[in-house]
Design a protein that fits this description.
The chain has eleven helices and 17 strands. By secondary structure, the chain is an alpha/beta fold. It is globular and about 60 Å long. Bound molecules: nicotinamide-adenine-dinucleotide and zinc ion (2 copies).
Length: 382
């Protein structure tokens, strides 16, 4: 089969690999019909994620058709159209039984903090991902669900991460009716977090980024006010002015460890590797929220120390909540929202690119070229 393969930072290409085999009775092999590239894949692509091994296949956002199932699989059969959450999880450990699927204790011998993620380095379990013609799906009775007939492929694909994560970001913000919510980052996760904030009762939603075309999407798709941080000497002061000088009630970081906006942070993080990333957006979230406010962190951060304004968060009495999204937990509610027309997630898709051209897709998305917001990869076998 053809699969995307990592060759080192900024180098990906398509190679021939063996079609994955059933390794455990509860595995399924899925023929991928659509995969997406995520902002999280860029951390791998940029060489920021520890233990990203040459030869591995990325891709934690994918849907497909069941090709083969192991002997113990009961809920799926060959031919089923399935969506697969990005988390690999057992469904029965202490954490899974409390809904903490992203913190499963049984799927990742390489780390105690994080569970398994498809195509997301050996730090996250070393599972090959779905930017390929076929993928092995462990715990096939636990993660995947058959896609309802009324749900189209593009919408289903966005359920596997970006939509669920944006929604989870708004949920962890614990938005009260009428709250002002500031969302940092107008990528897929930020757009969905902003849009979801309304569903949770926000009175005002402000999205911060520095890419015009994404801010435009935030106005159109997420009905948000927007603020271009490059146009302000101090974005926190601008946000304070916009919120009666008290600050927003809730801030959502949908940027993560590769934030722009501070040269010093960029040099110490990306160039000198003195910190695990650049926490500019997280610090802006801490600074721009009011005392006693909530900060929800969806942007990804590695395990190492970064210069986060933790003391300010402490002294302001903030509530900080964060995690990798436990995707399947969000599905019942999201399916209702889509079915009733409150959400059409595929409106954020900008590019459809054959698997053969995946290197170009990574380049477009990483360099934010050609108005790219969400590139979808179509494998040849689909
Ligand atoms: N928690 C989870 O489960 C989960 C799931 C998916 C993605 N993520 C993470 O969410 C983050 C966003 O993902 P995405 O797919 O939307 O990525 P993306 O790269 O498309 O979007 C990030 C956006 O942030 C903007 N940005 C950069 N610096 C900024 C700053 N200082 N302030 C405001 N905006 C800034 C960029 O211009 C870009 O538009 C990534 O870190 C990704 O790893 C987390
Ligand atoms: Zn993702
Ligand atoms: Zn588990």
């Amino acid at each position: 089969m053809k699969a995307m393969v990592y060759r080192g930072p900024y180098k990906v290409r398509v190679e021939e690999k063996d079609i994955p085999a059933i390794e455990h009775p509860n595995d399924a092999i899925v023929r991928v019909t659509r995969a997406a590239i995520c902002g999280s894949d860029l951390h791998l692509y940029h060489g920021m994620m520890p233990d990203t091994r040459v030869g591995t296949t990325f891709g934690h956002e994918f849907i497909g058709v069941v090709h083969e199932v192991g002997p113990s699989v009961e809920s799926l059969k060959a031919g089923d159209r399935v969506m697969v959450p990005f988390n690999v999880y057992c469904g029965s450990c202490w954490f899974c039984s409390r809904g903490l699927y992203s913190n499963c204790h049984n799927v990742n011998p390489n780390a105690t903090a994080i569970g398994g993620i498809y195509g997301y380095s050996h730090t996250c379990g070393g599972y090959d991902g779905g930017q390929a013609e076929f993928v092995r799906v462990p715990f096939a009775d636990v993660g995947p669900s058959t896609i309802p007939d009324w749900l189209d492929d593009d919408d289903a694909l966005l359920m596997t991460d970006a939509l669920a994560t944006g929604y989870f970001g708004a949920q962890l913000g614990e938005i009260a009716e009428g709250d002002t919510v500031v969302v940092f980052g107008a990528g897929p996760v930020g757009l969905f977090a902003a849009r979801s904030s309304w569903l949770m009762g926000a009175g005002r939603v402000i999205v911060v980024d520095h890419l015009d075309y994404r801010l435009e999407k935030a106005r159109e798709f997420a009905f948000a006010e927007t603020l271009d941080f490059a146009e302000h000497d101090d974005v926190v002061v601008a946000l304070k002015k916009a919120t009666d000088h008290l600050g927003a009630d809730v801030a959502i970081d949908a940027v993560g460890a590769e934030a722009d906006g501070s040269l010093a942070q960029h040099i110490t993080a990306a160039k000198l590797k003195l910190q695990g990333g650049s926490p500019v957006a997280l610090n802006w979230a801490i600074d721009s929220v009011r005392k006693g406010g909530n900060v929800s962190v969806m942007g990804a951060y590695g395990p190492m120390f970064s210069a986060v304004k933790f003391g300010d968060a402490f002294n302001k009495g903030l509530t900080l909540r964060m995690n990798q999204c436990p995707v399947k937990r969000q599905w019942p509610r999201l399916l209702e929202h889509i079915r009733h027309g409150y959400l059409k997630p595929s409106e954020i898709i900008t590019h459809r690119i054959p698997l053969d051209d995946i290197a170009e897709a990574y380049h477009l998305f990483s360099a934010k070229l050609d108005g790219c917001i969400k590139p979808v990869i179509i494998p040849n076998a689909a």
